Structures are given as C-alpha cells and as structure tokens.
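Page 47, continued from p. 46.
Same chain as before, 384 aa.
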Amino acid sequence: MALTAVHVSNVPNLDQVAKKASLSLYSTRCSQGLELKMAASFKIPKFLVIGHRGHGMNIVQSSDSRMTAIKENSILSFNSAAKFPIDFIEFDVQVTKDDCPVIFHDDFILSEENGTVFEKRVTELCLAEFLCYGTQREAGKEGKCLLRKTKDGKIVKWNVETDDSLCTLEEAFQKVEPSLGFNIELKFDDNIVYQQHHLIHVLQIILQVVFEFAKDRSIIFSSFQPDAAQLFRKLQNNYPVFFLTNGGTELYYDVRRNSLEEAIKVCLEGGLQGIVSEIKGVFRNPGAVPKIKESKLSLLTYGKLNNVPEAVYMQHLMGIDGVIVDFVKEISQAVDDMIKPVKAVIAEERLSQGNGETDAKSKLLFSQQELSFLLKLISELIQH
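Result:
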C-alpha cells in the first residue's frame, strides 16, 4: 500500500515543551560550546572526536580484539569512552512497543531457545522483553542469549570481553559522564516506509525524555531517514539535527539518500544544521566539501577509514568538522598529536612573521596545491 509523504509544514511545533532545555549546547569538553540559534545557525568550534556506539562498535568475529572489547551501546561502553579526550559518543535510539526509548543498533534482536534461532523486531518488544536479553543487572539473574548476524549471513554468539546490560535513553542521561556530549541517531528501518503520524509519535516520545533528563548536556541528533530528520527539526529548536548519508557509496530507492548533493538539499529544505557522511563518500567526491561549507552546514563523517589516523588528519585539512570512530583511544591521541601541534605552529608562525622569521615546523602543513593533489589521489584510490 502506498503511504503518504510527510509534509513538515503541517506538523505541530513542540517548542513550548522545551522550557527546561538549554539553547546553548555547552559542553566542558567543547570549551567554546556548540551554539544553536533559533534561526538555525550552528557552529562547531573545534575538530570533534566522537566514539562510535560509545567505546566502539562490535564485530563479533573480528581478529582485532578492540572490536570485541566492550559491549557496544551500553553504559559501560559510554563511560569507558569518556576516559579519553573525546567530545561526544554516538549511539542509536529506537522506541519500544510500550513507548520507551532504548539504545540498540540492529533492527532485530536475535536469540536462541531450545536450539531454534529466532529474531524479534526491537520496536515490537515491550521494555521488559527488551531488557531480558543479554547480561542482566540483577546478581544471579541470567538473561536470554544474544546472537548477531555477520555480514556474510552467519549467526554467531555475541561474545565480548567485557559485557554489559542493554539500556534505555533515560539511563544514559542519568549514568553517563555529564561532560560527554551525545550524538543520538534516530534509528528507523531502511526497508519500511513510515507514515507521518508514526514518525511524529516516535520523535515526540524521544523528545519527552530528552527535555526531562538532558539538562546542560551537548546533544546532536541525526538520522538516515530524511523525513524523520526534517520532522525532528520542525518539532524543536533546541538541538541541531544532522542528516546521515552513505554519500553515494550505496544506493537506495529514496534518491535523497544517494549523494552528498541530495543531502545538502535535504538539509536546506528542512532547516537542518549539518550532514554526517560515510567518509568514503567524501573522499570519492571531495568537491562536495566546499559546497557543504558554502551552504553553511557542518560536516561530520563515519566509517572504517576514520580508524586510520592519516585519514582523520586529511579530513581536518579538508575542513571537515569531526569524525565518528571506533578506536577512541588511538584516534583521540592521534588528534592530540597531529592537529593541536599544527594549530600551535600556525599561531607561532603568525607571531614570528612579525619579526621576519619563519618556523621550520610549518612544513607540516600542506599547500593548497598539495592538498588538491592528495584529494585527487585519494579519490582515485577509493573508487577502486
């Protein structure tokens, strides 16, 4: 059955609900704050490092022990990430059948009973059912086993070195280090066409929790679902909303999801503040970065290449505003080692130029011509 399109102009505004929410998205880790004005202007004052699903995503059959160290999207993962000099953690929020926002990445929970593997959609579970899977909070209580499907379709046990229980959005606000910002992905199934009233209901439920428990925490919202992203921007003016995209690395029926140029259109039409793109999409199309900046949009990236320090440094030179990473320890340290010294060099060079001096350390910086060459080289490599 064909479903009606979402018309955000017809959506009621929830600004009156946001009395407790701060218009200044201030974080002690982001010393200048993230400023969001009612006119939708948005400024990221520094290069951000964001922990993917907290301390990093799980790949249960990975030979890299860092991918199975701590259960992703858990309170333990979030607070473990907070031990490093990162600015935000990213995590996925869905709403259960009984209207509770919970944190979980996959659309389905996989488990096993009496030798039979089954899957249940997260949004069709009530909260009590959702929380009964995996490690339990209560001592001596055993939860139902959690399985996970690998990229090649195998179903394996979701084993990690340090496990933790599933959690709700409310718990994250209450139990995670308060100086750590949240990048909350509004999670929807790629294979479902959602009706407007359903999207509004889900987003309102999430907003209620945010307005009640967020306090002064810095928050950025994002979604791959373009209608949900535009609706969320319509429903509130307190927090920036970014549109998530694969940047053309994968193709979808909804053309709005198939390129950075389309992502720009989604943002401008819906008054969104920025784009979060798969880094391969940016490296394949580096010319989109100045277009994004000219549109006064912020740009963050995600993807495996963000676990490579040199790729992160290149993004800093390109003017990208931040990266979502799995290896929070290594990348946060690399950012400290590579980016902060360069900023110091620039400041020192400006002072020394007044005395007719030049600093040899400035050779660490690429000229515009060198940067253009590197971008073309990367683009060619990524295409193949």
